[in-house]
Amino acid sequence: MKLIKTTAIAIATAATASAALAGPVMDKIISQGHVQCGVSQGLPGFSNPDANGDWSGIDVDLCRGVAAAILGDADAVKYSPLSAKERFTALQSGEIDVLSRNTTWTATRDTALGLNFAGVMFYDGQGFMVRKDLGVDSALELDGASVCTNQGTTTELNMADFFRANGMSYEPVVFEKADEVVAAYDAGRCDVYTTDTSGLAAQRTKLADPGAHKVLPEVISKEPLGPVVAHGDDQLLDAVKWTIYAMLEAEEMGLTSKNIKNKAAVDTNPAVQRFVGNEGSLGEGLGLSADWAYNIVSQVGNYAELYEKNITPIELPRGVNSLWTQGGLMYAMPLR
Amino acid sequence: MAEKYTPGTHPDLPPPKNLVGPAAWIRDNLFSGPVNSIMTLFCLYLLWVIVPPLVNWLFLNADWIGTSRDDCSKEGACWVFIDVWMRQLMYGRYPAEEIWRINLSYILVVLTALPLFFKAVPSKVKGALAGVLLIVYPIVFFYLYVGGSFGLEFVETPRWGGLFLTLVIAVTGIVASLPLGIVLALGRRSEMPVVKSLCVVFIEFWRGIPLITVLFMASVMFPLFVPEDLSPDKLVRALVGVALFSSAYMAEVIRGGLQAIPKGQYEAAAAMGLSYWKSMLLVILPQALKMVIPGIVNTFIGLFKDTTLVLIIGLFDLLGMAQAAATNTDWLGFTIEGYVFAAFGFFVFCFAMSRYSQRLERALDTGHK
Q: I need a surface site. Which of A230, A278, B148, B311 has the fewest CB within 10 A?
């Protein structure tokens, strides 16, 4: 009886809440005082535990940015490490509020799974790594090569497509775990190692002589990674989406966690004044405080700072993740 | 030779030199024939190939002191990695200032369990201590670990991890599965059709699905069925899953013991006018459980190692923590050290359980062998 009653109440509150201005998840975040954020169990540069027991990585910093925007405190985040298989259920069942777990934005996930992608934090894609002394400059010269990769992943399928499409033969050498793949490649059991470029960069540091290897320019798949929220709370979707844009916009305007306090006080540029919330009503439209973007940048940083802190240590150049003004794909919608 | 001594006057001579001593032992055991000689040489060669590099890697070339990866040469193991991550490997992300709670529980368990190993302690005291260990402590420790009451800070379960989490899952499974298993085993042998069929269905259901499926159902499917407010914590769901799963295995081990008891014992207990529960508790179970100690401990050890599967539902046990630590950008590439350390940790516990069971078998041996 109690179960039925609670269920009825839950359905009733869900129905009325969605009619109200603030979304149900947004309300929950504000009332519980923290953002429950789903992250990966450990992916170098994206989310991994550090020796103090905290989480770090660019996915983690997105969570911190969302918390700074909604609650004004970047530390008001609780992390749920999730395996790849349980991540969407955790979001659908309401166990987590935001999923920031190197998740590729695909049509199926965005629609049929009842999820909304808020944007792209990192443009990833499958690449190839070879030994420098192999004398290969392009993936199109890899005819007849033996290729190490992970078993049963899209990586393996993409590789098969790529070689077939270009009329090249190859010999796959597959392993279950990433560590085994790296060890095999390092031991010379294959000529090429293929996985996502972020993975290639991270795994390269494990090799005996990282300097003797190089990543080929071809990227054979699109893996836009971004944060996800569940359907049914447009306000939260807006908040997460504009958190990413605020980080990018801050980089474009030259606002960093170090100088934003000073610039907010002295800079007369109206765009900066709008950004930090001294003018205009950006926060109002989002249902957030006026200084939401200021909080993101002052407490977490702009996109360049996040990249340098998290991704640069795994020796991955900005590439397509540069701002559009520098030839990359990162483009923030105008904040006005 | 025989004619040198008259019968009865044979002196006590030492055995011939070539039949005693290390040389004789080696000849008899290692080089007794061409096949054995080849095998021995081959094994010596294998040891020669394997052991020196292993010792070099583990100890001689290993780096023990330091605080970052720069303190490690790449020639040997980098135990600095383990040292730096020790707190996480032991306690997960449990807040540093609250770790005393976990240590306190360890100390309490050791102090309470220690008297059980001495014969001089009266059995009534032992019984009381065992009761405290199995009934009082689980409740006390639950409040101690979770906090949120008695002035203790609340520590949510995603922060639990490392060896601590491994022990929580394994001990919960072990403590819950034995009584549940006994009840299920008795139920399966019951003559009451409803009880019997319920137990059969339960046991066959849980034995029929892999633990990984149980954990997935608990972690992924269960929250979809129940409203969010009613859904228990992910760790609790995993614990219940592990306990039910292992109790099904335990039930079958114990049923094996029950079936090995001669029918005469059942009849004798009945003839003395003992009720069902009295005859079970006083006559049948003490004999049956004693016989299946190896099977019970085998299940315990299996369960202890199976706890590593919680990695797939996002919980960081000892092994998971070691893997996660090696994904930190400052510590990429130290997975092998992590695996070796985790293996060592698991070995210590499993070996201890195995030795304890052998001790228990000897102590309880009443001549059935």
A: B148
The Cα of B157 is separated from the nearest Cα of chain A by a number of Å equal to 10
A18 and A12 Cβ atoms separated by less than 8 Å: no
Of A10, A49, A86, the CB nearest to B93: A49
Judge whether B230 is closer than 8 Å to chain A, CB to CB.
yes
**Contact assignment for A95 to B74 by CB distance below 8 Å:** no
Which pLDDT band, with edges at 50, 70 and 90, does A75 fall under? very high
Domains, in order of start, for chain B: 80-94+155-364 (1.10.3720.10)
What residue of B is the nearest CA neighbor of A51? B85
Q: How far is CA B268 from the centre of its chain?
A: 36
**A41 touching chain B per CB within 8 A:** yes
Cβ-defined contact of B312 to A95 (cutoff 8 Å): no
Please check whether the two domains, A13-123+224-317 and A126-221, share a CATH topology. yes
- A17, A18, A24, A30: CA torsion to nearest 10: -70
In CATH, the number for domain A126-221 is: 3.40.190.10
Nearest Cα residue to A214 out of A137, A160, A305? A137
> Does the predicted model carry a pTM greater than 0.90?
no
Q: Which residue of A has its CA nearest to B226?
A: A7
**Contact status, residue A170 vs residue A108, Cβ threshold 8 Å:** no
- Per CATH, domain A13-123+224-317 is 3.40.190.10: yes
Task: Render the burial of A99-125: b for 16+ CB within 10 Å, e for the rest.
Answer: bbbbbbbeeebeeebebbbbbbbbbbb
Token pair, residue A181, equals: 């793949």
Other Cβ atoms less than 10 A from the Cβ of B13: the count is 6
Distance from A127 to chain B by nearest Cα, in Å? 20
Please give the biggest Cα pair distance in chain A.
Answer: 73
φ, ψ (nearest 5 deg) of residue A194: -125, 135
Residues B19-33 have pLDDT tens digits of: 888 888 888 888 888
Minimal-distance CA residue of chain B relative to A313 = B329
Which residue in chain A has the smallest CA separation from B225?
A93
Q: How far is B223 from chain A (nearest CA, A)?
A: 6
DSSP B220: I
Lowest-pLDDT range, A88-97, A117-126, A128-137, A174-183? A174-183
List, in sequence order, every residue forming a beta bridge with A129; answer none if it has no partner: A193, A215
Q: How many CB pairs under 8 A join A and B?
A: 110
Full 3-state SS string of B180-211: HHHHHHHHHCCCCHHHHHHHHHHHHHHHHCCH
Nearest chain B alpha carbon to A6:
B227
What is the rounded CA–CA span in Å between residue B14 and residue A331?
95
Report the run of H or E that residue A101 belongs to, with start and end.
strand A98-104
What is the spatial distance between Cα B290 and Cα B265, in angstroms, rounded to a whole number?
A: 15
Q: Give the list of residues 6+ apart from residue B176 with CB closer than 8 angstroms, or none.
A: B243, B246, B247
Distance between CA atoms of residues A304 and A59, nearest Å: 14
Domain parsing of chain A, residue ranges: 13-123+224-317, 126-221
Selected for mutation to probe chain B from A75, A86, A204 (highest B CB count within 10 Å) is: A86
H or E stretch covering A309:
helix A303-310
CA distance B365 to B291: 9
Q: How much is the ipTM here?
A: 0.78
Q: Which residues of B touch A86 (CB under 8 A)?
A: 216, 219-220, 313-314
- Inter-chain residue contact B93 with A3, CB threshold 8 Å: no
